[in-house]
Amino acid sequence: VGHFLLSMLLSDDLQRSTRATVTVVGSAFHNYGYPNGIDASLEAINSIDKYDPGKAYAQSKLANILFAQEFAERLSKTSVRVNVIHPGMVRTELGRHVMKKMEHDVGLSIKEFMEAAIESVAWSAE
Length: 126
Hints:
By secondary structure, this protein is mainly alpha-helical. The protein has helices at 2-16, 42-46, 53-74, 94-106, 110-125; strands at 20-25, 80-85.
């Protein structure tokens, strides 16, 4: 929500600028969320049984990417650039949930995850 709110609050100033860039943090992990994509229902958000930390993280990154795509489209006739980046791996407490879950549920190793991230960045740069 932070990317969206800040970008919306700054939208007029960004458009008046001669050159502006909005950078949104995504992740190659965005592909490993809930099966139906983004589930923002109050039931899903508050459900102890349905909540999964790894899938919630993936869902948040998918939301960031979708926001960036829509924002870029809306600003396509201006000088504002909108980019999504995958910053790579960072050791955080989130990692203890996400990486174990990813390896268990998806069968994706950290090496395979990083290869997907590199491929995603290379595709974005084209």
